[in-house]
Design goal:
The chain is of the alpha/beta class and 191 residues long. The chain is built from 5 helices and 9 strands. α3 links the parallel β2 and β3. α2 packs across α3. The longest helix has 19 residues.
Length: 191
């Protein structure tokens, strides 16, 4: 299903800035393409990890839709937890989660590759004693395939590459749009 964001009805309480962003957003990946891409990642993860008892770590908020899509497709024993990365770059996770990383095969599941966030999460998992750390992204630039990503569902290039502002499938603009079934590039700035 393709959603024309220009034709969406908005409640009066939705900020004008959000309305403008939605009106200018450009569809990059329709829902069916997202679904097929997640299927491919799930198959690769199954082949790679079905005999490892991995711990999948959902990085909130951007990873929640991607993680949910993956969980429905991964039919082998695994554990699943969620964490947040605070603005101070500290990981917000319970002591129990931190202890559960020790000597475990870990997969960090995030919605979009953002270099600093990915580096902080990698450091955190390493310090917590993870046996191995894999990274899975719903959206990442193609250059990341050779530089730190084990699983990339969708590749974006140019303006929609690393750190680009995207909307849909867990990615949001000021809290809006994470529920959209496709992925859209946001035009302009966030000002």
């Amino acid at each position: 299903m393709t959603v024309d964001l220009k034709r969406l009805p908005f409640a009066d309480s939705v900020p004008a800035k959000v309305r403008r962003v939605f009106a200018q957003a450009v569809l990059l990946h329709e829902e069916s393409r997202v679904e097929r891409a997640v299927d491919r990642v799930a198959v690769r993860m199954t082949v790679d990890m079905q005999d490892q008892n991995p711990l999948l770590i959902n990085v909130l908020p951007a990873g929640f839709v991607f993680a949910g899509m993956l969980l429905r497709r991964l039919v082998f024993p695994l554990q699943f937890v969620s964490i947040s990365l605070l603005p101070s770059a500290e990981v917000d996770a319970s002591q129990q989660i931190c202890e559960s990383l020790h000597q475990r095969d870990v997969v960090l599941v995030d919605g979009q590759y953002i270099p600093q966030r990915s580096a902080h999460l990698q450091d955190w998992a390493t310090k917590a004693g993870a046996a191995s750390i894999r990274k899975a992204f719903l959206v990442a630039p193609d250059t990341l395939r050779n530089d730190g990503a084990d699983y990339i569902a969708l590749v974006n290039e140019g303006e929609s590459g690393d750190g680009a502002e995207l909307l849909g499938c867990g990615l949001d603009y000021q809290g809006y749009g994470a529920n959209l079934p496709g992925i859209y590039a946001i035009g302009g700035s966030r000002s």
